[in-house]
Amino acid sequence: MNPVDELPAVLTRRQLLGQAGLGLGAAALGMLRGEALAETVRRVAPRANRVIYLFQNGGPTHVDLFDYKPKLTELAGQPVPTSLIDGKRFSTMTAGSNKNFLPEITHFAQRGECGRWIAEDFLPHTAGIVDDLCFVRSMQTTQVNHAPAITYFLTGSEMAGKPSMGAWLTYGLGSETEELPGFIVMTSRDREASCGQIFYDFYWGSGFLPSKFQGVKFRGAGDPVLYLSNPDGVSRELRRSQLDDLAELNQLNMQRLGDPEIAARIAQYEMAYRMQASVPELTDFSDESKQTLEMYGPAVLEKGSFAHNCLMARRLAERGCRFIQLMHAGWDQHSNLNTQLKIQCEDTDAPSAALVKDLRRRGMLDDTLVIWGGEFGRTPFLQEKSGDRKGRDHHPYAFTIWLAGGGIKPGFAFGESDDVGFNAIQDVVSPRDLQATILHLLGIDHRKFSFRFQGLDQRLTGVEECRVVSEILA
Description:
Elements: H1 3-10, H2 13-20, H3 24-31, H4 34-41, E1 50-57, H5 62-65, H6 71-74, H7 82-85, E2 108-111, E3 116-119, H8 124-127, E4 133-139, H9 146-155, H10 165-173, E5 183-189, E6 216-218, H11 236-257, H12 260-282, H13 290-296, H14 306-318, E7 323-329, H15 337-361, E8 368-373, E9 377-378, E10 394-395, E11 399-404, E12 412-414, E13 416-417, E14 424-426, H16 431-441, E15 451-453, E16 456-458
Parallel strand pairs: 1-7, 1-8, 4-12, 5-6, 5-7
Antiparallel strand pairs: 2-3, 4-11, 8-11, 9-10, 13-14, 15-16
């Protein structure tokens, strides 16, 4: 039976009137299967069916990797004009310090038929696929510190507690498989553990949406999901019997209380049971060719590495997962840019490029949207440190991300920053513009996709003005 049809049966008249002011429609929709809801939220023809978000925590340095600025070499060591930095916010780590221009520490070259400038010495594999990529060089955000900036990109709000993008999409579109969650998260970090960033659970939380839509985190050690394995002495048949009895008790509770979270709990128990069979096959790379494993790099068999997670992302996409969120920390190079940036690129370059190539050769890139980028960029000026160490501070005023597949224009660059990569000066793109564009590529009108909570029609993109960046669409 459709859960919406069951709703009157599980709510008394008193409960119905009491909950109406809190958004009965939202409670009903919260129990809908995603596939049914998709019929109502898709307003345009989808170009993508799934998303793989390669989120680079810490803020990759755009001026060293993607946004070539010869002017920085000309101005090397000179102080940044006061007119450029007046009124601008940076982290407190550069407060009061002398801000002198620092040129790129990499070697840029034009690559591909599109002639895109890229740091080919640090990103040789990404340089080899530039004709598949669309670079947005005019990203700009409002946040200067990591947690609120990441939260803004992933949830549309600087404050923790709102649903993440993956939760919104699985709520609206459901999953293409019943054997795995529709929203899966994997984390990794730089091998030297050079920064202390934390992966907060709210980066993949469901917020006010039913909890069945929150991201399921796959761990890098032991069982991919906690408590997925049965305890010693508990057979699969016994587990099935226990879940059936538990479902009966939960069903009685739902009839008595009418709480949609009870329906979510039943669904999560059932998903965990199915995952006991599907996850071991998913994580077994023995069916991957030697060529594929080598393409992802030497760390591909190391659980918890970015390379391992990228191959897992492709396998999850093949199996119908809707939103796959990889988060890799280590780009926060305040004082170790001249040592750590190279290592960070070695860890992420080949796997990122391999994922795009692997999807393309399997015929999946056309309907899989891949996104690579962080929460902000790094300053074009040196962060003052002692000795020969070099670093750059957080920089929200201009930075670069790239996208591939899923209806994105390949071999293209959009937007411009100024001569030193300080300010975005043409075709500025905000995090909410990016979110609106992602929804559009999945067939959703961001202005009409909402969930009623606390008397308001809440949206991923909020109520502020934002737009679909149509210029980057194929």
